[in-house]
Amino acid sequence: MSKKLTIGLIGFGCVGSGLYEVLNQSKLIDARIKSIVVKDPNKKRSIPQENFSFSRDVVLKDPEINLVVELIDDSEAAYEIVKSAIAAGKDVVTANKKLIAEHLSELLELTKKYGVSLLYEGAVAGSIPILRNLEEYYNNDSLSSIQGIVNGTTNYILTKSNEGIDYATALKDAQELGFAEANPTLDVQGYDSKFKLAILLKHTFGLEIDPKELLNIGIQNIRPQDVKFALEKGYRIKLLSRAEKIGNDVVGFVAPQFIDSTHFAYEVNNEFNAVIVEGLFSDKQLFIGKGAGSHPTASAVLSDISALKFDYKYEYRKSEDGDARFSQDFYLKVYAGSRYPEILDEIPFFSVDEVYQSKDYAYQTGWIHFEEFQQLDPNRRENLSLIVLPDNILSRKELEAVVTAAEESLEYA
Ligand code: HSE
Description:
By secondary structure, this protein is of the alpha/beta class. The chain has helices at 14-25, 57-60, 75-87, 97-114, 130-135, 152-162, 167-176, 185-188, 191-205, 224-233, 294-308, 317-321, 341-344, 370-375, 396-412, and strands spanning 5-10, 31-37, 52-53, 67-70, 91-94, 118-119, 143-149, 236-246, 249-259, 272-279, 283-290, 325-326, 331-338, 351-357, 362-369, 385-388.
């Protein structure tokens, strides 16, 4: 039997107003929004003022409301709202990735205590139903990697840079189109992608990793010379969130990457997101969809609401069965570019492949240990672009074999 849902909606911004519209247009869902709570009584909105209340208690203290849909921007305020809603015995749907990435274990304890459900499909990759698939469809397949473009704003900016449009103009467009966060630093410096990666690590490998432990390199330092390097080699630059299993170890990070035309995400442009899941039996599978914007994100929220009619809960089975450990002991092949060649000499490469220097730009490529890469603290530097090359991630043993083979081929050349 399906449950009757009476919704308290908190937040009426880009996604909240989108949900209001899609819920009104969807003939299939029998769910009613009883109250809408917003913060600013003076803001002009798309529907008449009498639809709004200004105190969250209107929702939290109403016994008739059995589902709180939280769609505000401020993750600290969202944390308080979600905790109170759960403690009041209400199911919760949210699209707040920072909230979930930072507080999931505490919120799950609360949902168990109060016997309610917490769903957040809209928090990762907008309209792509990746969490439900990881929970249900891939429940019996041992997953070896998950990677993807999970931030629409940066993919939009990178796509436009290939078309010759400058960074500031593309970012402004992404803000006007409703893709960017209120603070777009979260998008361009890779924080938003990192919060989403933390959630994916939980649903893919059962790992709960504090986002502070995850490296995020953004796209803000990418220069036209880096884009030129990509075009010359037949690459595109994409901001990828990436996690993969090497033995029992799982490695994960967010960084810009050069990808070639064989990569599944090569043709994924503008605000579209892509998630590539690789399983032992299924091999690689690609999901594509709009990752940002009002209606696409609202469609994921709508799907969570619909699932709650049947009391759906995530089961987190990979957390119970998993034997994975998070590791930083691996090697990556990277490109480091700068206007100042002396900055490149500070990079602790394990081995260098290519060195280039012209009047106004220099770059080097080579293998680097991940921990040393992380210590470069790329988001605090202005004159260094770090971009991962398409080569595989290697363990120490694998890298030693690659370097020895390269040295031997030089000796015989
Ligand atoms: N700012 C986010 C993005 C919104 O650009 O992907 C969707 O989470």
